[in-house]
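[SOLVED] Need 3D model of a two-part complex

Original post:
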Amino acid sequence: MQTNEQAQKSYAQLVKKVSPNSPILKNCILAFFSGGAICTLGEVLFQFFQNKGFAEDTAALLVSGCLIVLSAVLTALGIYGKLGKHCGAGTEVPITGFANSVVSPAIEYKNAGLVLGMAAKMFVIAGPVIVYGILSSIVVGVVYYFLGG
Amino acid sequence: MQKRIGKQTVRLQTPVSILATASTVGQKEGDGPLGAYFDVVEPDSMMGEDSWEKAESRFVAKNMELALKKANLEAAQMDYVLCGDLLNQCIGTTFGIKDFGIPFLGLFGACATVGEAMSVGSMLIDGGFAEHILCGASSHFCSAEKQFRFPLPLGIQRPQSTTWTVTGDGAMVLAKNKTGPFITEITTGKIIDMGVTDANNMGAAMAPAAVDVLLSHFQDTGRTPEDYDIIVSGDLGSVGHQIVIELMQKEGYDMQNRYTDCGLKIYDPNTQDTHAGGSGCACAAVTFCSYFYPQLKEGKLKRMLFLPTGALLSADSVQQKLPIPAISHAVVIESALPNERNEKRNEKRNEKRNDERKSGQVNTV
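Solution:
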């Protein structure tokens, strides 16, 4: 069988023709509604805490905390993974997705020990988000310092 | 007698018996279309262990023991054990068979491992180096996901072209001069790299290797697809299966009617959410051991061309954007030897005659 560059090119076309596509429209709609539902839940909690007499910034912190705990518990129960299968970006993008990405490797690697397993592997997925999150916030901070006045 | 025919094929001087096979799978496989054919369906994919890797080793140990039991042989009677899996350094295999005390040759052919084991095993027996050989292959959905993709509880969407790694172990006992079915010919595949880099489309990465070994086999033996009752690839799934048909069509071979894939057989994509089908070392191994072997044994299939397929990638090679080279090994399995087939036919004819005679006698009495 020919494996030269030309054969590879025409093969790539055949693969593209034969391979099924992801149902993008369906995925987008599900992501929109599921992501929106999580945000709505956050808003409900926010109002709840404010009604209980918490200041705005404290209430916001409490909302984040609640959503993180909820996501961690659902991940441990194996429910969040199943939700993610249907909701896609909807459950991945909000803060709950971040919690899921930390708890998942922690569970998966806990049998390799608490230090070299769970703790070391905990940030294999979330790590890049933290690194580039901090990096870009520094850049924005510097720009703001000079231009923002 | 010349054992080597053509560039990649050997014809065994003394065909090697597949004495017995055993298959142990997880619950998802048990719920699939082949559920009734497996020897054991394990409801607990952890197998009472605390890690996926240990669980895979339990699958290996239990199923290899079962294969020996079905062959009425002891581990001490095995001259070699030939097997492998997908985990780094084949630890699924090692910790499964370490207490057997059988001389061990570890094999890695990714998901084509069972074909490699059958090939090497039958050559060892035909060469006169062994009498009995235990061979097989295993994989576990969870240990494979952990090693090659993401932690299991992570909520992600799998693309439609992905396949689902089969959990289980397929094992068989090869023996010299016993009853059928027999391994008669082997075509060893070459590494084929068509530049596919998408690790979510293994069928596409592996299909060219299957095509290459098919073409070599037909060229070496002078046969065509019509010479086989069935041609079965390992774990190409719906995408790779379609590609093989199209590429073979271009080469002038019509595969449509007699070609299938273990990855298509093992799951129901409509109800089991497996997308393009099954994959993993165990996919070809358990499907052959449970579904095709009995059909060969009963003579429902006379001659089968079995070509497990493997993607030779690692998590690192994918991250470094290397292409996914693939391999496929073809093994010809025949239900009976040509002269034996005639004998069987004669036997049946005689039996029939005897029956007729007997019934005739009963009538006259």
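Edit: The two ends of chain A are 66 Å apart (CA to CA).
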